Amino acid sequence: MSVTKEQFIRDFKDALHEEHLIKIPVATPTELFTSLAKVIRKYYTPKWLERNKRLSDDQEKIAFYFSIEFLPGRMLETNLLNLGILDLVKDSFSDLGIDFEAVKNAEHDMALGNGGLGRLAAAFMDSLATTGYPGFGNGIRYQYGLFKQKIVNGHQVELPDAWFGSVGNVWEVRKDHDIVDVKLYGNVHLEMNEHGKLIPIHENSQTLRAVPYDVPQLGYQNGIVNNLRLWDVEIPEEDELHYPTLEARRKVQDITAILYPDDSSYEGKELRLTQEYFMTSAGLQTIIKYYLKQGRPLAKIHEKVSVHINDTHPAVAPAEFMRLLIDEYGLEWQEAWETTVKTMSYTNHTILSEALEKWDEGLFKKVLPRVYQIILEIDNRYVVKMATDGVDPNIIEKTRIVKDGQIHMAHLAIIGGYSVNGVAKLHTKLLQEDTLSDFYAIYPEKFNNKTNGIVQRRWTQIAAPELSEQIDKVIGCDWRKDIHQLEELKHYVNDDTVLNDFYCVKQKAKERLATYIYETTGITVSTQAIFDVQVKRLHAYKRQLLNLMHIIKLYWDLKDNPDKDVVPRVFIFGAKAAPGYHFAKSVIKLINEVANLVNNDVDLKDKLKVVFLENYNVSLAELIIPAADVSEQISLASKEASGTSNMKFMMTGSVTLATLDGANIEIKDEVGDDNIVIFGMTKDDVYDHYRKHDYYSRGIYENQPVIKRVVDTFVDGTISDVVSEGMEIFESLITHNDEYFLLEDFMSYVEAQEKIDHLYRDKKVWSQMSLMNITKSHKFTSDDTISQYAEELWQIKK
Ligand code: 26Q
Fold first, then answer.
1. Residue whose CA is closest, atom 15 of ligand 1?
2. Whose CA is closest to atom 1 on ligand 1?
3. What integer pLDDT is reported at residue 60 of this predicted model?
4. Following DSSP, what letter does each residue of 174-211 receive, concatenated?
5. Which of 159, 441, 483, 523 is buried deepest, with most CB atoms within 10 A?
6. Residue 521 a catalytic site member
7. Where in this protein does the record say N6-(pyridoxal phosphate)lysine is found (predicted)?
8. What is the rounded distance in angstroms from the CA atom of residue 766 to the CA atom of residue 215?
9. pLDDT tens digits, residue range 177-204?
């Protein structure tokens, strides 16, 4: 959009007067923020209206991305950048004497997600708007997002994330006219009507009101505004008498009160099932209503609508869609089923079996009695059809939806849709060959890969403005619109001046992070040290513990020989543990206590520092990632579906230290073997151990003195205040046979770390590696990923 500085300043001052009746010098950052947001809303609202009108006038096909999580982080800068006025606003603020950073920090992160899956969903919203595809989000307006993490005495403590704060969500718009009702509980029986048709009668149910709040998704400087619709729950006025106590009302509000803070192990909780159904049903109901306004036949809805199921959390969608088509709109089963399968597609984000959702039949029947009946019918028909097609009865039994008293949501998503995709090449291959191999044998045509991507704009232009300016200087500004232009940087890998300039940019980012580290933890770190970073959810398979074991090895090396010639290192961690994940919390405590040990030992002469930054979130990622020299991506091969932070680090010139897992493999293919450091077992090595049952960690421990010394450190009193945690870790590694093969990979990891030390000493070589990573990072833009979804799956048009 075009606005002059003078006009913007006038608009801003007006907003400040209207909202807060004050002038700039006395306004707080929050007041300045809400006023700025008001101006931004004014700028994009006409475009938003226009987009909605155009789409319904033109009757274009729309994709709806159903996800129980969306993790956009802060929206202020993205909105300004995408409107094309970020620099203008920063400039104006500087003229007005306003600290832009302070205003930006007044916005709470919108943290309605746990990690990778939620961040990917938010990235897709941005990329859909940017590429111009009509794609809308559908999710939950949680009152509390992912908990705020405090570290107290080395332990994680969780506090509620009251992200609405005192000002609410400044970007959302409540849409009363799109309210729908969602029914739960009660009992259902079938009655024959006058035409001999069986009609379900749902009695004694509870009706909830689903209220949509729309959050605009601005495309990058293209005037397009899409919609992210988040549902809140309310009690229908006519039912208020049913909820006479505060407690009864609170039970309803609980449905959208909190985001489940777990991203790995699933628990069969009734409230979670309710959340999943609530947002799925509400979303599907509005979609059908919207479609019917076009005056087209319902049986052809797949021609105008695509529904994407992000992991199994919204996987009740095919069954709920069937219920709506049949019960509410009178379609026949066969017709309804055909259109349902053509409408639904599903992404799998994990191969960990403990994360695959299954619902107890009894619970499901109690909460969703009619949907339950429909699932039984889908299951029965599936079994009969497969048997008729001559499928092996064992395979039918393994793949059916309802078995052993449980409803298998992934099976419903696969059977009830036309597409199943993994999120990186290796992941998709593993789904086909292992986790979902029986389905792959039945429906090979449904399987496909869509390697994840990231919103490059957030990780360069917003998180790394100096880096972006440096890129401008070398190849011009076109890359900001067309990220593939980054490829041009490859012509400068031998240009010493350019290499040095990029090096200096990294140093600046490191200085900023060093300041933050000092201000928040009191730890002093040198920017001459290698900044070695591992930031992600804490999980055993991601192996933060392997990183910590290597730190302990370095500690002993330096204690034994304080003059040892090593490049100083700062190991930086950021990680939240699921509140009920005991092991993960113990690892956090250990990292913090090792940090205490190492940071305060003068013998080490500042060659080794360990920093745990609390409350890792999108905003902190924006500060940390551009400052990293080394990106730790060290999951056990086969376990990390894709990873996406690996791509963000690469884009800001970190060198990846990685196992051949998830998208690391594709990063390696892009940058070449010389520009990444790979170590450890391959997925085949891992699977060989599974097949042969021949892994014995105690053998390694007893035969490898370096490893023995490191492992013993957890229990020999070297690290203070970790008696129970140290023991727990020791037992996981030795007594429980080291489920994620840390000991087998340890020596190879140490070697890889030595290689990093060696490479970093040669400033030119390191700078070349770094630049090659930036150069090749364009491959991982979510703009391209989403274009593949749009064209290959959803068949929507720009
Ligand atoms: C399920 C049921 C009940 C409660 C919670 C959950 C739940 C919630 C979130 C299960 C899983 C998640 C999130 C999973 C996730 O973030 N997976 C990551 O997805 C990324 C995007 O595809 C990948 O890059 C990561 O490799 C993958 O771990």
1. 117
2. 266
3. 94
4. E-GGG-EEEEESSEEEEEE-TTS-EEEEEES-EEEEEE
5. 483
6. no
7. 648
8. 42
9. 999 999 999 999 999 999 888 899 999 9
